[in-house]
């Protein structure tokens, strides 16, 4: 089977996750295959002999001759896949060695061009948010709030932005029983949402695919939301015996009006990206084929705007709401603490985990 554009884009993301530097030779090969796959045969003038780096790159690309774009794309995907598996097996052979370098298990966090990017990285679980991942997201946001970047971006690796709360979180019951679990979860959720409410810089969501549950509700706390036209927005709280969180009980009616918010938050209506944009939850929708390119070009331009001015403007825009949002968050968490103990919620969770239901 030929590698699709999605496979190619996933492979490009995978390269950033490699735990071990693959070495210059492999990096040149990756560069050449990438150029061939995206631009076709080498079309650049040959760099001078003393321009060592660009000449090495040119040589590698030129050596691919007239290799078809599709074959280059496939070879790129295959090469990344072989690198990913060998880097995984070598890290398994040296427990702890690579762990120190990788700060987060479920996120990839990078800082470049004035932008800190926090990428959910559990693609095989559709980026479902495990208990550990909630903690990591809070840590990453707190670090981003203090780093040199001007804006912070949250996105997902793979085909989903995030499928929301990992429903297996509720299977890890502490010695205090389910009541204790519900209490701990409510505390964690409150801290988690508070971190978004208090985030001091422009916070942008790059919604690369479907979003579910808490990954949708928290969008109301972002400053801009850019979505691929493949993204959908789904808050199936009633189906799960739950109630809204992420301050959506306040932000959604405010953003889209109470009637539209009811359809989403009570009846679980799933919105397309264009519908979510028409309702004001999404800032702008892009065709999936050009999504990453268009959004990152724009974000790079925004990131060059004066840092202090952007911070202060955000403060002015949000200040009036902060106290209200914290109160809403506290109330939602207290309601959910009881909901998690309800038969409706427990049955829905068990049905999903025993594979009897899906959204
Ligand atoms: C503690 C604080 C709580 C805060 C309150 C938050 C509330 C919410 O976020 S409510 C929303 C919760 N999310 C869901 O109910 C989504 C459940 N998932 C699904 O319905 C489906 O997985 C899907 C529609 C998201 C994707 O379907 P499909 O494309 O068919 O992919 P798979 O189901 O095969 O998914 C692959 C793999 O990942 C597992 N998985 C996906 N999402 C979750 C999840 N949210 N929780 C746990 N596991 C998830 C899925 O079970 C598959 O696993 P395997 O079968 O073992 O491969």
TrEMBL record:
GO terms for cellular component: mitochondrion; peroxisomal matrix. The lineage of its organism: Eukaryota, Metazoa, Chordata, Craniata, Vertebrata. It comes from Pipistrellus kuhlii. Its EC number is 5.3.3.8. It is found in: Mitochondrion; Peroxisome matrix. Residues 83-104 are annotated as: Disordered. This is Enoyl-CoA delta isomerase 2. The keyword S-adenosyl-L-methionine does not apply. It is an enzyme of class 5 (isomerase).
């Amino acid at each position: 089977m030929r590698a699709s554009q999605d496979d190619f884009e996933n492979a490009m993301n995978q390269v950033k996750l490699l735990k071990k530097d693959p070495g210059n030779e492999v990096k040149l090969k990756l560069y050449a295959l990438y150029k061939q796959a995206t631009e076709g045969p080498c079309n650049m003038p040959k760099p001078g002999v003393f321009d060592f780096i660009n000449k090495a790159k040119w040589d590698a690309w030129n050596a691919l001759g007239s290799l078809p774009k599709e074959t280059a794309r496939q070879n790129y995907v295959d090469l990344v896949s072989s690198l990913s598996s060998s880097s995984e097996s070598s890290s398994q052979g040296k427990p702890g060695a690579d762990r120190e370098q990788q700060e987060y298990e479920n996120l990839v966090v990078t800082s470049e061009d004035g932008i800190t990017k926090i990428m959910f990285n559990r693609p095989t679980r559709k980026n479902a948010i495990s208990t550990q991942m909630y903690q990591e997201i809070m840590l990453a946001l707190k670090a981003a709030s203090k780093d040199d970047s001007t804006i912070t971006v949250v996105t997902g690796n793979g085909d989903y932005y995030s499928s929301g709360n990992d429903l297996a979180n509720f299977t890890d019951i502490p010695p205090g029983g389910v009541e204790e679990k519900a209490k701990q979860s409510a505390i964690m959720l409150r801290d988690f949402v508070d971190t978004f409410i208090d985030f001091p810089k422009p916070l942008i969501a790059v919604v690369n695919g479907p979003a579910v549950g808490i990954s949708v509700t928290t969008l109301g706390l972002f400053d801009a939301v850019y979505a691929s036209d493949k993204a959908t927005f789904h808050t199936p709280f009633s189906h799960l015996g739950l109630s809204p969180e992420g301050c959506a009980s306040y932000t959604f009616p405010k953003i889209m009006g109470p009637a539209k918010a009811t359809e989403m938050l009570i009846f679980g209506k799933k919105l397309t990206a264009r519908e979510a944009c028409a309702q004001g939850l999404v800032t702008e929708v892009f065709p999936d084929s050009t999504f990453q390119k268009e959004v990152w070009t724009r974000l790079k331009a925004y990131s060059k705007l004066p840092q202090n001015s952007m911070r202060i403007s955000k403060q002015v825009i949000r200040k009036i709401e902060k106290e209200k949002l914290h109160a809403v968050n506290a109330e939602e968490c207290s309601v959910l603490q009881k909901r998690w103990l309800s038969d409706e919620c427990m049955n829905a969770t068990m049905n999903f985990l025993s594979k009897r239901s899906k959204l």
